[in-house]
UniProtKB/TrEMBL annotation:
Keyword Cell membrane applies: yes
Phylogenetic lineage: Bacteria, Pseudomonadati, Spirochaetota, Spirochaetia, Spirochaetales
UniProt organism field: Oceanispirochaeta crateris
Localization per Swiss-Prot or TrEMBL: Cell membrane
Membrane topology: Multi-pass membrane protein
InterPro entries: ABC_transp_permease
Entry's Gene Ontology cellular component terms: plasma membrane
GO molecular function annotations of the record: transmembrane transporter activity
Parts of the chain that traverse the membrane: 17-44, 64-81, 93-111, 117-139, 151-170, 198-218, 239-261, 273-293, 300-318, 330-348
Domain of life assignment: Bacteria
Transmembrane helix listed as a keyword: yes
PANTHER family documented for this protein: ABC TRANSPORTER, PERMEASE PROTEIN (PTHR47089), GUANOSINE ABC TRANSPORTER PERMEASE PROTEIN NUPP (PTHR47089:SF1)
Protein name per UniProt: ABC transporter permease
C-alpha cells in the first residue's frame, strides 16, 4: 500500500508538547460539537466550565477538594501503566481503603487520640488497597489472566461488598435505618480549612505521594525495572529482573495509593461508610485519564488531576445551569481520553507515503 504506518524512531520534547496540546484541542472541539447538538454555544459552555471551577473562590476550593483523590490515584496508576499493567481497578482499591479505615476507626477510634488513630487508619487503608491490587498481579503473572478483565471485575465485587456491609452487619444503629455505618469518632476525622472541604494534610499527602512516586520511577532501581518491563518484558526477564516480585510490588503501591484516597474521602468528607457511588464520584476511572494526560509521570498527575477536577466541578455547574444530562462530564472525559490515546499513538508511530515504482 502507498500509505503505511511505521514506528517513529525518536521524538523531541517540543514535539511531545505539541501533540499533547493538539490532543487536548481536538478533544475540546469534539466536546464543542456535542454542545452544538444541544443548541448550546460551545465557546460559552467551555468558558463556563473553567470559570465555574477556577474563576471563583468557592469553585476553586471544590476543585482542590476533588483534585486530591485524582492526584493520589492518578500517580499510582501512572506507576502501573509505566509497566504496561493496565490497572482498571482503582475504584475498587479506593473502596477497600475506605472499608479498612472504617473498621479501624469505628473499633479503635473511641479509645485512641487523633494523632494515633488517623495514621493507623491511613496505614490500614493503604494495606486494604494494596492487597486488592496484588490479586490481579498474581492472576496475571501466575495464571496469565488479562489484568484489564480481572481489575474491572474486581470493581463490581468491591462495590457489592460495600453495599452488603452498609445494609447488613455494619449498618449504623444511630442512622435511623439509612444504609450508612455509624459516624467515625471526632478524633478520627480530619480537620478542614475554613469555609471549604479541603483537608490541608491530605492535600500535602497527595502532592508528596506524586513527587515520591515520580522519584521512584525515574531515580531508583525498582523504577528502572518497572520501565524495562513496560518497554520489553522479555528483555527484562533475560536481564534477570524478577518479573513476579516487581509486578506484585508495583501493584501493591498502585492499589495502596488508591486506598489512601479512599481513607481521605472517608475521614475528610463523609465521616462514615455508605454506598460506593457516594464514597467515590468515579475517581478511580477519571484518574485513568489523569495518568494519561500526565504522560505517565506521577509528578505531572498533580497538574492533570487539578485540570480534571476542574472539569468535574465545572461540568456539574453547567449541568444545572444549562439543563444538560447528568452524563455530560463522563462524555467530556471520555472524548479527551480518546484523543489523548490517539496522540500517544502518533508519538510512537508516523504515517509514511511510499511512491509506487513502475
Amino acid at each position: 500500500m502507498p500509505i503505511q504506518i511505521v514506528p517513529r524512531e525518536k521524538t523531541t520534547p517540543g514535539f511531545n508538547v505539541l501533540i499533547l496540546l493538539l490532543s487536548l484541542l481536538s478533544g475540546l472541539i469534539a466536546v464543542g460539537i456535542i454542545f452544538l447538538t444541544y443548541g448550546i454555544n460551545p465557546f460559552f459552555a467551555i468558558f463556563e466550565i473553567f470559570r465555574s471551577s477556577f474563576g471563583s473562590s468557592f469553585g476553586f476550593k471544590e476543585t482542590l477538594t476533588k483534585a486530591i483523590p485524582l492526584i493520589l490515584i492518578g500517580s499510582g496508576l501512572a506507576l502501573a501503566y509505566k509497566a504496561k499493567f493496565w490497572n482498571i481497578g482503582a475504584e475498587s482499591q479506593l473502596l477497600w481503603g475506605a472499608i479498612a479505615a472504617t473498621w479501624v476507626g469505628l473499633n479503635w477510634g473511641p479509645f485512641m487520640p487523633g494523632y494515633v488513630i488517623l495514621p493507623l487508619m491511613f496505614i490500614a487503608g493503604f494495606m486494604g488497597g494494596a492487597i486488592w491490587g496484588i490479586i490481579p498481579a498474581v492472576f496475571k503473572v501466575k495464571f496469565g489472566i488479562n489484568e484489564v478483565i480481572s481489575t474491572l471485575m474486581l470493581n463490581y465485587i468491591a462495590a457489592e461488598f460495600v453495599k452488603f456491609l452498609v445494609v447488613g452487619p455494619w449498618k449504623g444503629a444511630t442512622k435511623y435505618g439509612y444504609p450508612y455505618t455509624d459516624d467515625l469518632p471526632e478524633q478520627a476525622i480530619l480537620k478542614l480549612l475554613n469555609m471549604s472541604r479541603i483537608s490541608l494534610p491530605l492535600l500535602i499527602l497527595a502532592v508528596a505521594v506524586a513527587l515520591i512516586l515520580s522519584f521512584i520511577v525515574y531515580r531508583t532501581r525498582f523504577g528502572y525495572e518497572v520501565r524495562v518491563i513496560g518497554e520489553n518484558s522479555e528483555a527484562g526477564k533475560y536481564a534477570g529482573i524478577d518479573f513476579f516480585r516487581t509486578t506484585v510490588l508495583m501493584m501493591a503501591i498502585s492499589g495502596g495509593v488508591a486506598g489512601l484516597a479512599g481513607v481521605g474521602e472517608l475521614t475528610a468528607i463523609h465521616h462514615h461508610l455508605s454506598y460506593p457511588e457516594t464514597i467515590s464520584a468515579g475517581y478511580g476511572f477519571t484518574a485513568i485519564i489523569v495518568a494519561w494526560l500526565g504522560r505517565l509521570n506521577p509528578a505531572f498527575s498533580i497538574l492533570s488531576g487539578l485540570f480534571f477536577a476542574g472539569i468535574i466541578v465545572g461540568g456539574d455547574a453547567i449541568q444545572m445551569s444549562m439543563g444538560l444530562p447528568a452524563t455530560t462530564v463522563n462524555v467530556f472525559n471520555g472524548l479527551i481520553l480518546v484523543f489523548l490515546i490517539m496522540g500517544d499513538f502518533l508519538l510512537s508511530h508516523r504515517v509514511q507515503y511510499k511512491r509506487r515504482i513502475r
